[in-house]
Design goal:
single chain, alpha/beta, Rossmann fold, 5-stranded parallel beta sheet, 5 strands, 34% helix, elongated
Length: 176
């Protein structure tokens, strides 16, 4: 049997549908499809904690009501969660092998991270300024980033100057 891992799972947007954002602080939506089954599957082999900015007792109760064994983190001294079979709900970033989050940007290097952060900001500004209900999909946004990072005659990226293919182009095309 493989060694147990500790996995961190964000609550809003990963487990809870979060269709209205923070709203009034209540947990108003049902779970996302497959979320509860996935938690049960993970709990069979791994230690899992849910991280959230919400009240941890509220989230633990919500999970328990839906059949996921959960307990609220009430200690400030905890640095690890290694218990399988019960989800710990915390508002702290504990050590984990992986973090599952709907708003994450995977860090590889600062150039790539800054490019992705800039793209997120532009997409948000474009959506806010246009007030259009149909914001470009992630695939469209990635294609726009890839288009900006083109190869020059001297074998470098026209956008960032790195050797072609640059890290940002590789990320936007998933290594393409």
């Amino acid at each position: 049997m493989p060694r147990s891992r500790t996995l961190a799972v964000d609550f809003d947007g990963v487990i809870h549908a979060y269709s209205r954002g923070w709203h009034d602080g209540t947990i108003y939506d049902p779970p996302l499809p497959g979320a509860l089954d996935a938690l049960h599957l993970l709990l069979a082999d791994d230690a899992v904690f849910v991280f959230t900015t919400r009240a941890v007792d509220q989230v633990a109760e919500w999970l328990n009501e839906r059949g996921v064994p959960a307990k609220a983190d009430t200690t400030r001294a905890r640095k690890f969660w290694n218990t399988r079979g019960t989800v710990l709900v915390t508002n702290r970033k504990l050590a984990a092998h992986a973090y599952l989050d709907d708003r994450a940007i995977r860090f590889r290097d600062w150039q790539q991270a800054l490019a992705e952060l800039a793209a997120v900001g532009r997409a948000d500004e474009d959506a806010a300024s246009s007030n259009a209900p149909d914001t470009p999909s992630a695939a469209v946004r990635l294609a726009r980033i890839a288009e900006a990072h083109t190869r020059t005659d001297d074998g470098t990226c026209a956008e960032c100057g790195h050797r072609w293919p640059c890290p940002t182009y590789g990320w936007a095309t998933l290594g393409g």
